[in-house]
């Protein structure tokens, strides 16, 4: 039991705190020194909690954005942001202070399973006050499972700006295209974020009392 708690605490420390999306009626301003970062998280396979972890460079504390839930008692998958749930997933739009950041890790939480890359990576981006930065789409492809639990994934980062920016402009009507300061390089497609073998899996044991 103690070992189970230690594993959960370790992953919490690695992931940091969840960052909430801005309100859909948010009005952009440069006077508070903050900018907006947008991207999307999509997946192919079973439902789980898919996390994208970022930090302020060079060594800021970890924080994350996410889609889904780790444990769901009712087998119902909420509707995402994309038409006809294709792909499955959602857009995120978060407010951060101006500065330099990087996406450097990801996690998948599915019931007792915790999946993480074998090594960290760096996808740098800059936040400009009063502007919007698009960092791309993080896509999780299920490569193995145990019953309904995801136990292995392959992760890619790519430019899906045509799709994602259209969703952003629809969800957040107070923004204009002129406020988008920079985006991930057009045509970007990076396979296997976190090493060629992609993941390590740590099942959390369940204690049995008699």
Distance between the termini: 14 Å
- SSE run: HEEEEEEEEEEHEEE
Helix percentage range = 10-25%
Give a short account of the largest sheet: 7 strands, mixed
Q: Please identify the structural class as seen in this structure.
A: mainly beta
Mean model confidence by pLDDT: 85
Report the sheet-strand fraction.
35-45%
Whole-number total of structural domains: 1
Number of helices: 2
* Oligomer class: single chain
CA-based shape: globular
Rg over CA atoms: 17 Å
What are the low-pLDDT stretches, counting only 5+ consecutive residues below 50? 1-14, 206-210
Number of extended strands? 13
Secondary structure elements and pairings:
Layout: H1 2-15, E1 17-18, E2 34-44, E3 49-56, E4 63-67, E5 88-97, E6 99-110, E7 113-116, E8 123-127, E9 132-146, E10 149-158, H2 161-171, E11 180-183, E12 189-190, E13 200-201
Could you walk me through the main structural features you see in this protein, from its secondary elements to its overall organization?
This protein has one domain. β6 and β7 form a beta hairpin. It starts with a helix and ends in a 9-residue tail after the last strand. The longest helix has 14 residues. 33% of the residues are buried. The chain is mostly beta strands. It is 12% helix and 43% strand. The strands form two sheets. Strands 1, 3, 4, 6, 7, 8 and 13 form a seven-stranded mixed beta sheet that branches.
